[in-house]
Amino acid sequence: MLEICAQFFHHLNSSGVLYCHWKSNRNLEMSLAGKTDLDLLVDPASRQLFEQSLAFFGMKRLDAPPGKAFPGLEDYLGFDYATGALIHLHVHYALVMGEKFIKNHRLPLERLFFNHLVLSPQGIWIPCPELELIVLVLRAHMKTDLASLVKLRIKESLGEPYNPFPDHILQELLELTGNSDLEKARDIYRESDLPLAPELIFDFIRDVRGGTLRAGALLRGKARILFGLRGYARENIPASYVKYAVQYLRRLPLMPRYSPKKTVSGGGRVFALVGADGAGKSSLVQDLDRWLSWKVQTRRVYLGIPKDGVVHAGFALARRLAGLGLRPWAGALEALLWLVVARRRRAVSLRASRLAAAGEIVLSDRFPMEEFNCMPLPMDGPRLGNSGSRFADLEASLYRQLARPDRILVLKADLEALRKRKADLPLEAHLQKVRAVNAIAEKGNTLAVDAMRGYQEVLLDVKRLVWRALSGDDATAAYLNAPSSVPTVRGEAAGIASAPC
Questions:
Q1: pLDDT (tens digit, 9 = 90+) per residue, 397-424?
Q2: Which end of the chain is more exposed for a tag (fewer CB within 10 A), N or C?
Q3: Angle at CA of residue 20, ends 208 and 187, nearest 5°
Q4: CATH superfamily of 268-452
Q5: Contact criterion met (CB below 8 Å) for 141 and 218
């Protein structure tokens, strides 16, 4: 279990927050290790205490993309200070379920859950297996689509086995049926007051246990369940399937780009990594992208000299002209090319700022810092100098218009260490870059990172700095500065200890 999970759930339990991890508890260990989502059902009466806990632990609210936003469901991202791992919380204040893109049924079962809780070996409140089994049967019927039913019928006619459910659903069904007392399950089902005949649930359980589930029975069961629960539908069935079709079509390969990832509520951030050659900028950007894009829409941008063939061909031509003695032509061409570079850098920086404003996280490899402008050949900066020429003035104006990142992480290391990592750069040029980078002072949103350490240590340090910026330095200071001393608060919902069935 990640340390943040151990402390967060201990905090919830001590604070009297009425909650439970309501589904997929066979995967609870994986969820607590940050490898899959945590699905928490929270009593609305405990919402204020719960949100205080989220804020204390620096959990960051995420916004779901179109087609994945449902009432009573919120998403949060948390950060484990010790390992740099992320956790993703699906927070349910109401039970909304159904097929993907739709989730058309809101079932009033929250109180039933809180009346039948048990404490997991990890110290997390979960529903007793009988209740989890009942709800999983309903979820399995609702999630099964027409294509799966047709495949099941075809396989039956061919005498071949076929599982109409995702493998994890089938494994959950089998485990829960083996761990449940069916008489107790019948009593809990009667307590639910759902307008469905009990045999819809328990005949299905019998068929799953015996491996005798048939397409016809599953189709009839799905129809009867949807019809019986029509009073709990958020929209009528035709309207819900129109929505399903629209969301399905949006995700087809030939449709305009659609991102299924979540965005940061209130706006994302732009992070730039700056350092001399060998400091690890590109590797860190790549690993940060993998880390964050697990759940959040993340983009990578590059603010070095553009790597496309046109720019490089232009500079090659300028060198060729100079070699032929045509220095005025070569100089004019180079000036135009440096203006092209400046314009592209400005465009990339402004686009990064717009993406962050829309909730995305943007990772920039390099950023033209003013501190580099005094170098003989400024690193990622203006190259036409202060000649007062029209080209130089225009270039300087373009660099002044760059959108500054929210955080600039400056990777500092000495020349000897960097030469061991990257020795193909001329020594004098490398030395100038190292001196320029190491001279940058920490101020405002410019932060120094000791890049002399091992890569994994540097990566963890950078992740911590990124997370502070995402979740808010003040809000997370208590947890991030003292992750082992978590205070608790008391609330009116402190009766959770009496909840187990």
A1: 999 999 999 999 999 999 999 999 988 8
A2: C
A3: 50
A4: P-loop containing nucleotide triphosphate hydrolases (3.40.50.300)
A5: yes
